[in-house]
Write a structure and sequence with these properties.
There is one protein chain. This protein is an alpha/beta fold. It folds into 4 domains: 3-119, no CATH class; 124-185, no CATH class; 197-247, no CATH class; 281-470, Uracil-DNA glycosylase-like domain (Uracil-DNA Glycosylase, subunit E, 3-Layer(aba) Sandwich), CATH 3.40.470.10. Helix content is 43%, strand content 13%. The protein has helices at residues 12-25, 60-69, 77-90, 101-123, 149-152, 154-159, 197-208, 216-222, 225-228, 237-253, 263-273, 284-291, 299-302, 326-331, 338-350, 382-399, 408-416, 444-449, 454-471, and strands at residues 3-4, 33-34, 127-129, 137-141, 164-168, 172-177, 180-185, 310-311, 317-321, 357-361, 368-371, 374-377, 403-407, 429-431, 437-441. A 6-stranded mixed β-sheet has the order 8-10-9-13-15-14, sandwiched between helices. A 5-stranded mixed β-sheet has the order 3-4-5-6-7, with no helix packed on it. A two-stranded parallel ribbon has the order 1-2. The structure holds uracil. The site of uracil has 13 residues, from helix 15.
Length: 472
């Protein structure tokens, strides 16, 4: 007896799980099932309706791979997953391991899908549409490589919960209206009007663009050309490339003070020891690994190490400082020195649990000038903040906080692009370059320097209290 399973275009993962559970419970061997719907030569029957007596135990690692691999466009992905399930059930080797050809194949499928989803999150560009009700309306066109619209859109539903939007693809369309997500059939590429947000994206892209790192091949593989036409900012690429050499030269000339003896050697050794991270990381951990090797500006030459953020990787609240201080540079952790103490005390008073927030800095290397045995803090300049915005953008993209608190002018500039004076902005919520809200307040180091810090300190506690209330 042979069986045929037709997987739907929507709800594919659940449908595969249900079918696989039934098939394994009846001990139906992989070569008896045609997962492509039975279009083959042999006459096939549907699977039984009910589960059989056998219960298979499946490790969580299998579901981790299955929940990505099933969206791959490869027609044999469902069959391969079932082969792995069969072998797990029969204890035939380790079909999830990279040492096994099946494991290697499945890992690759899962990785391709995760990358495709990541690209969707990075490259979907919404255009505003005329609105009929109180909610703003947006639409975007996107062409994924795999069947990734369904697993990819919950990200947008969380991020743009208070707007109505649709993402149309050649296969399916996702509609988010009144807070509800639904899917419809494929649409022709919509003829969408341009709007001012295109200009914003262009500015953002120009800001994060680091001419010293232009690698056209990498750019093409990370942002395949087929996406370019849908991205307003890519229209800037030719102009930026033309200016790139001159900008590199200006960066070199504007370089900061020379490294103290030995520091460069330490950071070079450190970077050499790290695995080469991919250019466009798929996870927060990969982003951290890549940041450890960062050479986007000269600050890495003197600093001991990159200081990455810490806390809950899915925190609703992100708190961003300026840059690591002396202690942070040595320990490799943010906010462990005197300013960190002020911040942690204020957080405790406001009821913010540091383990539930994500604490990080606009700039990931300590900038200082040596004076005797001391290293004196220097504020990062705009170019340094802009180079480092790449990392901050990745942290924001992976953590996806509902609210971000900017401590001081450098963080506020990094997050919003607004370099206006702090006194007009403290306690206010501004729109971040990442499209999320940013609550601006004083930096704890500023509070430490004031002869009478009471008012500024109360502002900091109040901001944290409000942030806690908004992200509970
Ligand atoms: N100041 C900051 O802005 N960040 C730190 O991590 C420490 C001091």
């Amino acid at each position: 007896m042979t069986y045929a399973v037709t997987l739907p275009d929507l709800g594919t993962l659940d449908a595969w799980r249900t079918a696989a559970r039934i098939a394994i419970s009846h001990r139906i061997a992989p070569d008896l099932i045609d997962w492509t719907g039975g279009g083959g030569l042999f006459a096939a029957s549907p699977l039984p309706d009910q589960q059989g007596s056998h219960q298979a135990k499946v490790p969580a690692a299998f579901f981790d791979i299955a929940k990505s691999a099933i969206w791959h466009k490869s027609p044999d992905r469902a069959a391969l997953l079932y082969q792995a399930l069969w072998r797990i059930d029969r204890r035939i080797g380790d079909p999830l391991s990279a040492a096994d050809p099946l494991g290697r194949r499945l890992q690759l499928l899962a990785k391709n899908v995760r990358r495709d989803i990541h690209k969707m999150h990075a490259f979907v560009r919404f255009r505003e549409l005329p609105s009929v009700g109180p909610r703003r309306r947006f639409a975007a066109w996107f062409e994924p490589e795999h069947h990734t619209l369904e697993p990819g859109v919950p990200f947008f539903a969380k991020r743009f919960a208070d707007m109505d939007w649709m993402i149309a693809t050649p296969e399916l369309t996702a509609h988010f209206e009144g807070g509800k997500l639904r899917f419809g059939p494929a649409a022709a590429r919509p003829d969408l009007p341009d709007d001012a947000s295109e200009g914003l994206w262009a500015t953002y892209f120009a800001n994060i663009f680091n001419p010293a790192r232009i690698k056209l091949d990498a750019m093409r593989s990370e942002m395949p050309k087929k996406y370019w036409k849908n991205l307003p900012e890519t229209q800037l690429i030719p102009a930026m490339l033309k200016d790139a050499e001159a900008r590199v030269q200006r960066m070199r000339e504007a370089g900061s003070t020379p490294a103290r003896p030995g520091a460069a050697a330490i950071s070079t050794r450190y970077r050499a020891a790290m695995p080469q991270a991919p250019d466009l990381p798929d996870t927060l951990d990969q982003a951290q690994a890549a940041a450890m090797q960062c050479r986007r500006c000269n600050l890495c030459e003197k600093a001991t190490q990159t200081v990455w953020g810490r806390g809950a990787p899915n925190a609703a609240l992100m708190i961003v400082g300026e840059q690591p201080g002396d202690r942070e540079d040595l320990e490799g952790l943010p906010f462990v020195g005197p300013a960190g103490q002020v911040l942690h005390k204020a957080m405790a008073e406001a009821g913010v649990d540091p383990a539930k927030a994500w604490l990080t800095n606009a700039v990931k290397h300590f900038k200082f000038t040596p004076r005797g045995k001391q290293r004196i803090h220097q504020s990062p300049d705009r170019a340094e903040i802009e180079h480092c915005r790449w990392w901050l953008g990745l942290e924001l993209g992976f953590v996806q906080p509902r609210l971000t608190v900017a401590l001081g002018a450098s963080a506020a500039y990094a997050l919003t692009g607004n370099a206006g004076p702090m006194k007009d902005r403290v306690g206010k919520v501004e729109q971040g370059l990442h499209d999320g809200p940013v609550l601006v307040t004083w930096h704890p180091s500023y509070i430490l320097r004031l002869p009478d810090p009471s008012t500024a300190r109360a502002d900091l506690v109040a901001a944290l209290y409000e942030a806690q209330a908004r992200t509970k």
